[in-house]
Amino acid sequence: MRKRLFPILLVVAVAGSVHPGHASDGPAVSLTVAGDQQVLYEWNRQRCDDEQIPDSPARAFRRADGEIVLIATHRTNWALIGSDFASLRPSCETLLRGTDYPAGTGKLWIQATYTYDGKNVAALVSQDLAIESRQAGCDPAGRIGKCWLNKILAARSSDMGRSFDLFAPKDRVVVSLSDRYPEGADRRYGAFTTTNIVRKDDAFYTIVYMQGSDQAASGNCLFRTSDPMDAGGWRALSLTGFDVDVKSDEDARRCVKLPHLGFEARSLAYSAKHGVWIAVLAGRFQLAGDDRPVAGFYASTSPDLKAWSKVARIMRAPIKPREERPDQYWYYPSLIDPDSTSANFDTIDGDTAVLLFTVGHLRNGRGTMNRDLQYVPVRLEASVP
């Protein structure tokens, strides 16, 4: 038996199955941190270059040679590699970058990975087309948020994740609301983030957050495929099943918006012991006993990835610069069991896990490239209804 790397505390309640998209009435999830905050990657000391920052939720998989690859990446797409979590160290190799493709490809962030064999790795990639939208004439004044167009693309690796390539242009788009930023829009628009890819029975799932033209087209939607290596196989859950190939704003309206996940769902993990899926997110929620919404990291559970419980707070966290703390802000939470027997770290096999997140350091109230990847240990316990 491998030695547990971290001590921990997290409380999970099991909810019954309900109609897709409806909220669970089961007990709320309570998460209590049981250890000190630790640094996994320190930008000031360990970076290969200034662009090597943790700017996306952490994802992990095991290579065919037994090494662990942990990706929490920026637009240059880099990774931490080690024989176990305790030995993870940054690699100076670039996995994927938009500048290696023709003009107009945009900036690329690897958001999810999945491998069957540790050699061939599928990836979902967030594509930022804000610069391209401005070059096409959108908002010359450059107001923040306006002109930001985003899609989810497919990529793959055949060398154990050392490098990734986008699929051919005709095959690479997985989720898109439009090829152009809408005229008259005043905020970001498109498909922005995905959770990691997880396996349930004989299918594979991810949650994609979309921001469309209105509330009906915006929110977290559950996607399924029979093979993550097939870029064209992903379909969103609607009221009639997994039958929506989201390529337009109207398609986005048809997908079921998952309940209680009011902000971007950042990661998924299955607790085998408790029989529930756990989603984590950053946001502000007003829970029982709060006199106002509280910024922090939160969790929700589901028996089937469709019906989600009300969130419970894992920990308070300064999630927006200059509002909760003058020197730091924390974001991109993800829940991973370092001792998971899954090659894709999508399961929590015992009572332990770690909550990883990015810590951004401010200087005189302004953002910097100084960002670290940190974690706190947590422990799973079933609450009593």
From TrEMBL:
Keyword Signal set for record: yes
Range of residues in the leader sequence: 1-23
UniProt superkingdom: Bacteria
Keywords noted in UniProt: Signal
Name listed for the protein in its UniProt record: DUF4185 domain-containing protein
Species annotation: Rhodoplanes tepidamans (Rhodoplanes cryptolactis)
